[in-house]
Design goal:
Elements (H helix, E strand, L loop, with lengths): L12 E3 L2 E3 L1 H9 L2 H10 L4 E2 H5 L6 H13 L3 E6 L2 E6 L1 H39 L4
Antiparallel strand pairs: 1-2, 3-5, 4-5
Helix pairs in contact: 1-5
Amino acid sequence: MENSDYAVDNAALIYNHKVVDSLSATLAAFADPTRRLILQRLAQGEASVNDLARPFRISQQAVSKHLAYLERARLIEKRKDGRRHICRLSGKPFKQVADWMEQYRRFWEERFDRLDSYLKELQERENTHGRKK
């Protein structure tokens, strides 16, 4: 991984008076269960703000704040269709998270493979030499 992968995004977002890199903004957006449910619904296809707000027991204003957070994190895109606002997923941030997580998946897979080999070796020793008391 190059050093530039760790650099602050050139098109960084301004939030709480500080610059936040895009990966941090994405992960912060994922931290909230309401936002994850909204993303899950949008994975099925586009939806209006009203449709997204319907299943929640919170005000539409609260849902709109969650949508604004998701939009700042670039996880969703909104467009107007007459008086309705239509939301859809934006794929790039999901790919950035998946790519970032991939290095850790490989890291842990290698560790688990080594642990599995070690445990098999111990099992073979135990079977060959009998159990030590």
